[in-house]
Amino acid sequence: MEDSRGSDFVEKFYLNCGFATRCLHAGEHVGQPQSATHTGAIYQTSTFVFKDVQEGADVFAGRNKAGYSYTRMGNPTVKLLEAKVNSLEGAEIKKRNPEICVSTQAFSSGMGAISTVLMALASQGDTIIFGNVLYAATEHLANNVLNRFGIHSVGVDTTDLKAVEAALHQYPKARALFVETPTNPLLAVSDIASISRLIKAINPKIALVVDNTFATPYLQRPLEFGADVVVHSTTKYICGHGTVVGGLATTANDAIKDSIYTVLKDVGANPSPFDTWLVNLGLKTLPMRMDKHCSNAMQVARFLENHSKVAKVYYPGLESSPYHQLAKKQMKDFGGMISCELKGGLDSGKKMMDNIHLFTLAVSLGSVDSLIQHPASMTHASVPKEKREKSGISDGLVRLSIGVEDPQDLLAALEEVLKKV
Ligand SMILES: Cc1ncc(COP(=O)(O)O)c(C=O)c1O
């Protein structure tokens, strides 16, 4: 079945192609009325013309699944991106089981994707189990928005399988378990396959939702490990150039896909065609960018770990990370995000962020250029101090998003700034 949201469309032709080939070619002509343009066209329109009343009625009634009515319900540019992501997240599971429907829906932001998915999965009186370190807006959504509609949230350390098992028994009314891996900003890694197995054994009514923003489908594909839904902020690596705020949700479960679409079209968290076009453009170079982000980040992490002024480095690629072995098993590489604490705590961290060259002081991450920010006063400022510190986000924590610059320049900038702290 194919409809204007790009559902269940993994092009067979590309199934056996490598990831980089699929980034370039998969989806490129899906949903495009004709293929005269080399790159997918931008359908910057809010509404679509029907040739007659019958055609309009068929599109609205779902009898004409390839037709478009109104951009909130579907748009050819958006559909192209959704079809490409179906291939990137779902080609392997589709090869294992051709009957599976892989469906992606694109959103106006990562939070648009997360809130829509959670509203699709849980109703009044239900519980959602969250990993206890999350991007702060996800945590805020749980504790300040969803709770007002009677959806309860509880936190669990998803890196501890015993704790996950206990929570699954303790909350029989849970309908979703939401885990970020690696986490923002502490780079903790959770075992997706083991959590999925526990859910299936204890309470299969729970959908496992994985926020894959830090890893991207190039480094980690949660559906292959048994996750039910994978969400992304495309604002980060997937777009990759800091030009768009966007999101994605992919599932191989038809009923979940339908619920997500129902909420999406009513809530209206759909992306603009132009933004979607930019995200698709970014995706074409994802593998090359990620390889460089990862190799640069590894060099920076090793440099920081060996520096006398650095107290602690959080990066799953380091052998000293408690998550190193799991990350090696679950991810293709370790990503471009690093957090660190300097020996002088907050004062030294501030000096570093205020004086460093090449790294731009700004929130967000995953752009081609390097960024630096202070989680306690910026991205995670909305988390109450006590809770923030308990989860390990100290006032002195500095988060670096390592770009694709020449690594010697990044190391020189760090060397220079650390002399000043
Ligand atoms: C891990 C993670 N998930 C979700 C989001 C939210 O994405 P957006 O800002 O696109 O809404 C972010 C934003 O930083 C994030 O880091």
Structural class by secondary-structure content: alpha/beta
Level of helix content? 25-40%
* Unique bound compounds: pyridoxal-5'-phosphate
Specify the CATH class of the largest domain: Alpha Beta
- Strand fraction band? 5-15%
Major beta-sheet overview: 7 strands, mixed
Q: So how many helices? A: 15
What is the residue-mean pLDDT, rounded to a whole number? 94
Can you tell me the number of structural domains? 2
Taking pLDDT < 50 over at least 5 consecutive residues as the criterion, the unreliable ranges are 1-6
- Please provide the count of β strands: 12
What is the H/E order?
HHHEHEHEHEHEHEEHHHEHEHEEHEH
* CATH homologous group name of the largest domain: Type I PLP-dependent aspartate aminotransferase-like (Major domain)
**Within the largest sheet, what's the order of strands?**
1-7-6-5-4-2-3
Gyration radius, in Å:
21 Å
Oligomer: single chain
